[in-house]
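Risk register update: the risk of archive-format incompatibility is retired. Evidence:
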Amino acid sequence: MARAAVADAVFAALSNPTRRKVLERLSVGPATVSELAEPFDMQLPSFVQHLSVLERSRLVTSNKQGRIRTYELTPERLKLAEDWLSARRAVWESRLDRFEQHVHHLKTREATP
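Archived output:
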């Protein structure tokens, strides 16, 4: 999957509050489908769709032992989102720094007789 498509999948998965809460839960440690679904007031098939989105985006992985499926966070994909956001933040911080320098230069010039 191309890097842009990966980022699209990750941000699409992160756009839903239920999926973000699942990721928060999985940041504590692996959990079964039942454990993950418990706090949510929705039918299990609907909840499993959220898990499918998270798994397709590779934010989580799962393994099945018998009848129990356990999900685990895949931090590398979160790092991708963090890196993308950090790059955008760096651009804006640089622009704000240059603007601040320009304003400081103008104030200094006005104060000089």
